[in-house]
Design goal:
The chain is an all-alpha fold. The protein contains 14 helices and four strands.
Amino acid sequence: MMLLTIPLSLACSAGLTLAVERYARISGVLDVPNARSSHTVPTPRGGGLGIVLSCCLAIALCFASGSISGKLFLALAGGLLVAAVGFWDDHGGLSPAIRLGAHIAASAWAVTVLGGVPALDLGFAVVHWKLLGGVLAVVGLVAATNITNFMDGIDGLAGSEVGFVCLAGGGLLMLEGEAGPASLCWAVAAACAGFLLFNWHPARIFMGDVGSGFLGFTAGTLMLAHAARRPSALWPWLILFGVFAVDATVTLLRRAWDGARIHEAHCSHAYQHAARRFGHRATTVAVLAINLFWLAPLAWVGWVLPRLGVAALILAYAPLVMLAWHFSAGRASPVPSGKSVPSISNLAGVSAYDRVA
């Protein structure tokens, strides 16, 4: 049953994404080019709904078969709230306060159900931080939800990144003998793959907030659940998530340093600068290459040598910070005459599909 969820998730995601595309075209649920957009043709949005439904089916099957615990099942259920507010936002806009409040509520629910974060394994010491750890876990889960949304701005990037994280994270779980959670991670990765059949450049449909927020929350919850059982597992997971974490953080900090309004839409992430220079496909492939040939090996080091987990994380992130700086993360670039300015999703509720050329 566990392994059957993987091909089932792939097939359901592909089929549902195709159905959503047709529905969106008929119903006019389109991302129409505007002053911030660089796509020139109205494109269906909300394709992430197929991912959400496929993942929910996989979660239900894993729980019904006893492959995952009731705690993990209930924690992941918080993703339904994240997906619901994302769906609402995709179909007409939503107050930023309501959306952020829903993210906090879902994250607090997941952390509470999982029992908080009992300890932080630094390799040389274990920190028991109890309530503080729980608060930081909620903040981290809200950040993961929104970072995935922020980074969903070019064709194929968010789906391939979360797919990679869940594929590799599932491998770590399988090495620990956690076959059920591992299969669920792989089912989430398969759902991403099914969506990518239609979202790879040139994209036929965009993910929308319904999918990006849900994926960030789900991947973050799986990470926290694993870390709750094995604290040292936190570092390999954070390493795997490195590209998104570093780009979003450097961009935010640099914009804050420059006095920019960090809550406003912008197009200054490193990946956006790279996409303007090299294109969607090349940028997404480059991110996958970084994941496979740099982050995955260091995550492995952090896994087999837990005492080196923090050191491996620092080593993994250091060149990513330099790369983000090289691509002017957080700095606006001039827009050529006749071309519109793209933006990304943010806490103000801007659509995730104001695209980068």
